[in-house]
Amino acid sequence: MQAARDVQQKRFSNGSSDIICNADMRVGEIRQFCRLQDEGQSLMRAAMTQLNLSARAYHRILKLARTIADLTGSEEIQSVHLAEALQYRPKLLLS
Length: 95
Fold this sequence. Notes:
This protein is mainly alpha-helical and 95 residues long. 62% of the residues lie in helices and 0% in strands. Helix 4 packs across helix 5 (79-87).
């Protein structure tokens, strides 16, 4: 876990001083550090449609997937990281 924190600290050391971890990223940083491969883009498009996700939810999933990728030592966000991030979304209770 400390290795993932070290990766994040190194990632953000050149930019804004107020960003120290993936959770602090704004849209500009998300676009820069959370690029998806074609397979990941397809997965996120399907999730956006099927789960009716907002832009805010989309960005939260990308930040979480970036953290999961950091924990596994991966430089790129892979579909498995996105799938894991999507699984942590809270389930809505229908009444």
